[in-house]
Design brief:
Blueprint: H1 3-17, H2 23-43, H3 54-69, H4 73-79, H5 85-97, H6 118-122, H7 129-135
Helix pairs in contact: 2-3, 2-5
């Protein structure tokens, strides 16, 4: 069985056990991790550690979502069941439990709580300045 097929089977098993999130959310978070690792390596050429903190991953996922989906990021993530940074943490740790990702010693699911507000992260950048001021 090919690696892609194994991943698909693993993701299907995760979604059967935890149906809060669509398979697309898991694929997106995995791709967001790859994006974040590349982004961090580009910033710091001497970085050898591939471990990514929750804060770094959340920042990378925000940038990846905006770059990939633009104004539709908030809507698409919501359709996948991802409505907060805590949801991203749940997805990450479901992937860790399925041995698709590895956690560093000391990593906790709570590290993803209250990372940022989704509306501020994914809607605010696209609002006209007048509406931005009204929201603050």
């Amino acid at each position: 069985m090919g690696a892609h097929r194994q991943l698909q089977k693993a993701l299907e098993a995760i979604v059967r056990d935890d149906s809060r999130y669509a398979i697309g959310a898991y694929i997106f978070v995995r791709m967001g991790l790859d994006y974040t690792i590349k982004r961090l390596a580009a910033r710091d050429k001497n970085r050898k550690d591939r471990n990514v903190s929750a804060a770094e991953l959340l920042d990378g996922i925000r940038a990846f979502a905006l770059e990939s989906f633009g104004q539709m990021a908030y809507t698409l993530l919501g359709e996948w069941g991802v409505k907060s940074t805590s949801d991203i943490g749940n997805i990450v740790f479901n992937l860790v439990d399925a041995q698709i990702l590895a956690a560093a010693k000391g990593d906790k699911i709570e590290d993803f709580d209250d990372g940022y507000d989704f509306k501020e992260a994914f809607v605010l950048p696209y609002l006209p300045k007048k509406k931005k001021r009204a929201l603050k």
